[in-house]
Amino acid sequence: MSINSDLFKGTLSTILLNLLEQHGKMYGYEITQKVKAITDGGFNLKEGALYPALHKLEAEGLVETSSEMVDGRMRKYYELSSDGQTAALNKMEEARAFIKSLQLLLNLKPALQ
Q1: Are 23 and 34 in contact (CB under 8 A)?
Q2: What residues does 77 pair with on adjacent strands?
Q3: How far is Cα 105 from Cα 95, in angstroms, rounded to an integer?
Q4: Residue 103 backbone zone (phi > 0: left; psi -120 to 50: alpha; other: beta)
Q5: How many angstroms separate the CA atoms of 35 and 75, rounded?
Q6: Which of 21, 60, 91, 111 has the most C-beta neighbours closer than 10 Å?
Q7: 8 vs 74, more confident
């Protein structure tokens, strides 16, 4: 089942910060494929949403970039700054609290831990 894109957009920065916190340095296509794999195709992260979100995080000082030559092509990598590491932890706590409240409001059973 595909997830509503409006719900996805509202959590994109949290998703990106968490992925980078868990996996370290990643490049754009790698991020899209990781999201697809983790959600078994439920989230389809398109470049049109990914790169503006990454650029916003970079402008906020939460993500740093570097470039490397890979197979004759330049690849841009994204990784958390020290402020980004703190933000990732804070965003995850906010997300957990939100999900807990949402489960109560919608009378959903909590996900298995």
Answers
A1: yes
A2: 27, 66
A3: 15
A4: alpha
A5: 19
A6: 91
A7: 74
